[in-house]
Amino acid sequence: MSLVCLEDFQAQAREHLSKSSWDFIDGGADDSFTLDDNIAAFKRIRLRPRFLKDMSEVDTRTTIQGKEISAPIGIAPTGFHCLAWPDGEMSTARAAQAAGICYITSTYASCTLEDIVTAAPGGLRWFQFYVQPDRQLNKQLIQRAESLGFKALVITVDVPTVGNRRHDIRNKLDLKRNLLLKDLRSPKERDSTPHLQMSPINPSLCWNDLSWYQSITQLPIILKGILTKEDAELAVKHNVHGIIVSNHGGRQLDGVAASIDALTEVVTAVKGKIEVYLDGGIRTGNDVLKALALGAKCVFLGRPILWGLACKGEHGILEVLNILKKEFHTSMTLTGRSLPARSHSCRHHAFREDELTSRVHPPLAGAAATEPRNLDSARRPGGSRGLRAPELPRNLITTCSHLHRLPFQNARHCQRQLPSSTG
Predict the structure, then answer these.
(1) The pTM is what?
(2) Of the candidates 251, 249, 261, which has an alpha carbon nearest to the alpha carbon of residue 300?
(3) In degrees rounded to 5, what are phi and psi of residue 55?
(4) Domain of life here (predicted)?
């Protein structure tokens, strides 16, 4: 069967994997409301195209942290790729290098950092880091990643404890008995210890600890898991270089906002001072375009990468990425994205939230929706001089909102939708 969209890869990957492996990759926390809403939230956003523009040239390239990528699409950090394919993260790294995008390698990779770098020496890689209780181990691992050529340190902040993942509990999944996490051992242990007891994540990590991590590395630090303006403002205050708006793919706290719903709040809070990225719920090129229109500099894929890996190894990942890049190119063309001026920084061709899309929220029971109104504008931070990047047409976003708000600050009523793909 021909695989023509990401959902096709999802269906085939499920057939290739054991039940416990599939549940681990595709499952969420508790009732999986947030997991489902990550996808449903994109479906509530409508595109408003503009026509009669010269679309003979469409260039998807952009930059993240000053490095050029072929499209604003990257690979999010996910662990244990050997569950999906024997070569694990080495295959993932090769696919990312071939696609010309960024691969964020997980602390819980099933291959060593050295093997991953050797597999794709020319690829752009960031290192995702779960802070461990042992500071010396943290320092060794971060400096090792830096010496191997990783270009950024991504600290995950939304895991002071692991979310309640019912499928894994029912399946009695015990990764630490079955997988070898070579990077969470000292050099001596890596040579002698046959198995690793997974180190606990440090639940005491605080904002003031960031200065210590900044003191031990020259890498730009990016925080993954920010969902609110308050934390976004603190991130800027503590001199981090970027934020990934993320709810951990719905695998941590169930009931939080979908990533795309939290994006505008974060983008507005940082005021263009740092780059903002997004993961969670990206399944089509339209989704990529919507995220960029709401202020993301780049999106990152989690589960779809593992689906591609499970189906065809690195070739499957490349197919997934190429499908998404082609869809994104088509979406740009059909919405009338104009070419940016060659002589200005991409920063001056910011996406405006009131220019591209409209939001549709299902009304509360007994309450009618208001007429569409313009949202506050949001700008896309970042960019570099002379590099062409997508520019979206004007006057393309409106919203429908409720007459009545929920009694919780920043809460939004969302009718639960069960999409055909989850994750």
Answers:
(1) 0.81
(2) 249
(3) -110, 25
(4) Eukaryota
Distance CA 158, CA 261 (A): 17
Using left for φ > 0, alpha for ψ between -120 and 50, and beta otherwise, residue 116 falls in alpha
- Tokens 């997980």 sit on residue: 106
Closest among 195, 268, 196 to 232, alpha carbons compared: 268
177 burial level (CB within 10 Å; 0-12, 13-18, 19+): exposed
Domain ranges (residues) in the chain = 6-400
DSSP three-state, residue 405: coil
pLDDT digits 0-9 by tens, 311-351: 999 999 999 999 999 999 999 999 997 432 222 233 323 34
Burial label for 65, CB within 10 Å (0-12, 13-18, 19+), is buried
Q: Is the dihedral of CA 111, 116, 119, 125 positive or negative?
A: positive
Residue 175 CA to residue 198 CA, distance in Å, equals: 8
Taking the C-alpha atoms of residue 276 and residue 72, their distance in angstroms, rounded to an integer, is 12
Alpha-carbon Rg for the chain, nearest whole angstrom, is 21
Evaluate the CA torsion angle 158, 27, 96, 39 in order and state its sign. negative
Backbone angles phi, psi at 293, to 5 degrees: -65, -30
* Secondary structure (DSSP) of 270-303: HTTSSEEEEESS--SHHHHHHHHHTT-SEEEESH
Q: Which of 248, 329, 349, 361 is catalytic?
A: 248
Task: Give the residue from 151, 94, 122, 38 showing the smallest Cα distance to 321.
Answer: 94
Q: Could you tell me if 128 and 77 are in contact, meaning their C-beta atoms sit under 8 angstroms apart? A: yes
Phi, psi of 289 (to 5 degrees): -60, -40
What CATH number should be reported for the domain whose range is 6-400?
3.20.20.70
Q: Is the pLDDT of residue 422 over 60?
A: no
Distance CA 290, CA 208 (A): 34
State how far the Cα of 188 lies from the Cα of 421, in Å rounded to an integer: 44
**Helix (H/G/I), strand (E/B), else coil: 243:** strand
Q: What is the pLDDT of residues 356-382, one digit of tens each?
A: 677 765 433 332 222 333 333 333 333
